[in-house]
Amino acid sequence: MRQAPVAVTRFAPSPTGRLHLGHALSAVLSHDLASADGGRFILRIEDIDPGRCREAFVEGIFEDLRWLGLGWDGEVVRQSARMHLYSDALARLRDMGLIYPCFCTRSEIVAEIAASGAAPHGPDGPLYPGTCRMLSTEERARLLPDTPHALRLDMTAAVALAAPLHWHDDRAGTVAARPEMFGDVVLARKDAPASYHLAVTVDDAAQGITDVVRGQDLFAATHVHRLLQALLGLPTPRYHHHPLVTDAAGRRLAKRDRALTLEEMRRADADPAALLARLRSGDLTVGRLYQKA
After folding, report:
1. Bridge partners of 9?
2. Tell me: the pLDDT tens digits for 259-289?
3. Residue 181: CA atoms inside 13 Å, Cβ hemisphere, count?
4. Distance between CA atoms of residues 83 and 78, nearest Å
5. Could you point out which of 43, 53, 64, 225 has its C-alpha 20 to 30 Å from the C-alpha of 196?
6. H or E element, residue 240
7. Regions of the chain short of the pLDDT cut 70
8. Which one, of 96, 27, 7, lies nearest residue 67 by Cα?
9. Residues 215, 197: Cα–Cα separation, whole Å
10. 3-state secondary structure of 12
């Protein structure tokens, strides 16, 4: 009987702020899955957005993980050093006729959606109406040299090429991929040469990730990742989407909402061993998780 490969997992935070309890949960579950299987736990820094990423937050990630007692295997990988891999992936999709330049500004997209009166919605909100997909080759050639633009995936063409797809989640079981609900997703912008969707798909394959452990809020994104894996000929890992840590009102934690950080807990003399025990138990409400030693 063929045995499943030893687990290789990753924790891949963006250095746009300090880590909070939601990050701690993803890190410990990913670490524990690899440890239980005699595998490897990899740390990847997703720093492709230079406008928001800060080196001080990278150091903070290291500090927080060490405080929790979570070590990682091998060198830390930074997405900012892997731009050539994303460029290669974009070139392959371009050669397949699956991406197109989008010259619309955010305000123009909002205005067009408002004018349409009934724009379809996806997990991230109203879908892009496909304005620039309709441009002629001549019009694209005229605009490309001097007009800022993003690169979008022609979702209809991509789905037609990839045929029916599935992926497996340890809670949801076998899931039929429906990436079309996202519409023509952006794969690159001038200020971010690779989107989250593209970079994470390429990196997970390049690093041999067998099991992706992340929050339930990223469950829907897996539909797009599965499509990109099929188009680029990349393997599909097993997925483990865990419940989210919530505040007293039941809202998921977010950096933008100034969620309680691990740094703040450390300064308040919280006990990291007790915190990890509570996270592993599945008690995911901040008020119960945050108890001083």
Report:
1. 41
2. 789 999 999 998 999 899 989 988 776 555 5
3. 12
4. 10
5. 64
6. strand 238-242
7. 1-4, 117-119, 247-258, 285-293
8. 27
9. 15
10. coil
